[in-house]
Amino acid sequence: MNIAMRTILGLSLAACSSSPIDPAEEQIAADGTEGMAAATQSTSLAGVVFDGVSVSDPLAAAGQLGAPGQLWPSGCSTRSRDTADPAVVHLGFADCTGPFGLVQIDGTATVTFSAGAGGRLHVVFASVDLTAGGSPITLSATADLSFPSATTREVLWQGSWTHTNLAGALVAHTSDVTIAVDTVSGCRTMDGSAATTVAGRQVDSTLRSYEICHDLVTGAEGCPGGSVVHTGEPSGKVVTLQYDGGDVAEVTGPRGETFQVALACASIGS
Known about the structure:
- The radius of gyration is 18 Å and the shape is globular.
- It contains four helices and 15 strands.
- It is α+β, with helices and mostly antiparallel strands.
- Helices cover 16% and strands 46% of the residues.
- It has one domain (3-262).
């Protein structure tokens, strides 16, 4: 079982259903879980911008950016402003642990700010030599931020993320989502689409108010809310995972059958 299945959502396919689980549905659910792991991991790294930046001016935003706060132990990550271009910030990681299975993060990434369309702040994220657990991570993403209020952000996110899971399979993920960020509650809510390949298998996903909240003190991530619809390709079979913020999700298969799966997460405040 790979790290996404054990740590990200802890997908337990020993269902509470009287009907046998279709192996194809099981695989789609597992690959979809990998996709949601990738979506959450990449946007969690970008959370340093979502939570810390509150202005659309590129130079001012670069000045506001601090070191990532949702990584531990304290002090494992650093930030430095580029000496030649003050709109560029370099992030460094040294044996950091992050949310949703990101362990032993090492290397560097860059964050580049510029003026976006319609008064938005345009941000480009790029990994340089990132690894997690010794395996390479590639992150390439753009985000266009607006600031509806002092404590909320609307983020138009397009990103790609690749890594090798613990089973040795290459996971390649792309996403095109809108993220609503609430810095008071510590929640990020994603709506949009994603595509993931795991060892050559493809699953397409639709995110519907998929929400992840983190503890504002410890940075620990809670259990998800909302739903995600995963479609396996080329079979076209559809599996829907419904989340209610607890440690159990309900799965609905293409024949309307339902069963529950356990999630390896803890609700915020529990």
